[in-house]
Fold this protein.
Amino acid sequence: MKKTSEPKNLFKIVKDMKSCHGGDYVFKINEWTPIIKDASICSKGWHLTTMPYKWFVWGCSIFESEAKNIIGWSEDKCVCDSIRLLREIPKPVWQSKVEDFVSDIKDGKVPFFVPDGVPDKSWKIFYGDTWGAARGAALDAAWDAARDAARDAAWGAARGAARGAARGAARGAAWDAARDAAWGAALDAAWGAAWDAARDAARDAARGAARDAALYSSLLICSDLKLAKKHKTHIEKRWNAWKKGYGVLCDVEGVLYVYAVKKKKE
């Protein structure tokens, strides 16, 4: 295979200093990797890319890198005899915010289904002997108030607006495309963390917690972008209810339908 010239910007995507896409080699900054003979694209050898966020994995780090003897290319990816990692590319602020948010959930800093006893006066709150019963009471009331077409309409609008803002920004600079590439991974990470933390409750309640965690992560992704205040406020109110230990069913005409197990003093 014919050797080719090296472009100016090559990157390696790693997690825990290992390649995100296979291999157990532990990279060290500024150290050349062992030479691999008979390198072949997508099969054997050290691989780098000119488009790091195309290969994004949640929790990864991206390093500007250098190649020794580029052997061949496949679109944005090249295979080399040896590589070395030069310097880590700083993470966008929004990515760090989402990572911290997901870590807080995993560390138990969100008291799912442990009500603080101080419900917000703007909520419509419903109680039951169990979380399932409480959610059922809220669901019955929501159906009566809005019927199927209106349930969670505000949630869908807020999520759509947040994604639209992220995609709009991505049209500008090349690195802003990272926001779009990482969107799904960020939402999946937030969803998974909340589901794991809340799944001991009723399944539908845990699903709601996971969904709103993903929604809140979309707000963090768009934290430096223009987003209508009504959507931002809606997202924040939903997540605040979960942080206070209550379950959130839906939004009906701007009012959150919230539920909890019965408490003697509340």
Q: What stands out?
A: The helical segments are 93-106, 131-150, 153-170, 177-198, 203-221, 229-243. Strands lie at 10-15, 18-19, 46-49, 61-74, 77-88, 124-128, 247-252, 255-261.
